Amino acid sequence: MPVGIFRVCLVVITAIVNHPLLFPRENGTVPENTEEIIQKMKEREESLRLEQLRLEQEIAEQEATQKALEKAAEIVEESKEEKVRWDMWTALSLDFQEGNWQDTGGEEDDMTVLGKAFKGVAFPNKAVLASFYEKRILGTTGDMARMREMVEGFADDLLEALRSVCNRDADMEVEDCMGVGSMYENWRVRKPFVCDLIVPFAPPEPYCFRSQIWCSGDSFPPDEQGYGTIKVCRADEDVTGCICDKTKLGEDMLCLLHSQANTTRPSTEMEDLLCFKNTQYLDADQVMKWFQIAVTKAWNRISHKYEFDLSFSLLDSPGALKIKFRSGKSIAFNLTPVVQYENSDVYFISHFPRSSLAADLPSSTHWFLTFAVYERRFIQLVSKTLPANACHVSCLQILSFLHGKQCSLTGPSGLTNYHLKTVMLHLLQACPSQDWAPEKLEARLQDMLKFLEKCLHEKKLYHFFIGNGKVPAELGFPIIFQRAEPLNLFRPFVLRREVYRKTVDTFHEMLRNMSALINEYTVHIP
User: Fold this and answer.
1) Bridge-partner residues for 178, per DSSP?
2) Parallel, antiparallel, or unpaired for β 308-312 and 194-202?
3) Which of these, 219, 340, 509, 518, is most buried using a 10 Å CB contact count?
4) Whole-angstrom Cα distance, residue 466 to residue 482?
5) CATH class belonging to 117-237+270-523
6) Residues contacting 315, CB < 8 A, separation 6+
7) Contact criterion met (CB below 8 Å) for 343 and 205
8) Where are the domains of the chain?
């Protein structure tokens, strides 16, 4: 009986458990639910894809907008820079007026205009220029410093010995030397390095120098612009109050203020004062002969102290000296006597390095004026206002290197390193200080080349100081030179067309060879 009841209960429980309404079988709905899930997942995936596309489109639109803004900013910046450059060219061309200079006819029709010579020229990029500067130029700075120190020390010793061998009552009085030029402005790049030292001198008492320059009011012919004369007078002599010294009197006329005995000095006396024969004007050739003899005597006195030889190295540069060591190495430097103009740092220089463009001196009584001391001071003054590691000196060094290499390939031209420095001085004054930041080396180098091309095209490159009324007052530059007519350094191009054509051809050849010349001294940059 209990066993039967148990069986009945087991059957009932089994029936209840297996009833489809109470416990539905899950396996029966799996296929239907899986398809729904897959469908929903597909719909979700499609939704996410559309959302992704929308977001990507929005991002692309934002990037395009950002690029457009950046492009607009660059255009504005370029327009500002072009305006500055245009203003710079305009400012530097104020004196280039029509009719001021000789018309050269149809020759200029074949010349390029500003910037056209650069078409098709592969200009080195910033990375190549930086690598070239670091590898080829930067390493020479230490060599220059050591050489300057050695030459200055020896020159001081030599001049001290020169004073000791001179007659203090009859010979010229020699002052301390000063370093000028590229070695002292830290932009010389080509070897051999040559230090340029100038040595001021003055006449013995009771004499003095009285100078007359081309822009002092008296008429000087065009080929004598930039020159002056130096008269040797007694300190108590008034040479400005009487016209007898400036006007040729008749044979039967005498000056009532100055007797013949006072105006005429023995020829030997004036020649002892290094004057031109039968005149009171200082003779540059006589000065150099005296200086060479005095230097030779001074070296004989101190030569036992040194283990090298000293000699004059160049016949056409009387102040060129060479130190030759026993090892065979040598050091060249120029020691040139100069006369101070009044109380300024402008000097009359007896002999100036000549170039194929320079004309012959009018006479040995005409002295060229050098503004090298003020040029060095101007560069130092402006450098204080420029960004750190400014690129002005780098531009000049690269341009000087390129021109020197090109001239070594195709021969000399009418351009000199002084012309290149003059271009830099003009741009230093015209461009804002921030434009000389180191990262703008490429742009400023192009500016220098374009400005030089413009000057060659017009045959006009004005001296930086003469006629420049914007020279900083801190320099203390003489006002008489600021008020003078601008001096065109390219004036000889008007008269010497063969030199002009050679110079232009060399310049254009340098532009075409620029990348090759730089890559020759540059590590490969992929």
Assistant:
1) 198
2) unpaired
3) 518
4) 6
5) alpha beta
6) none
7) no
8) 117-237+270-523
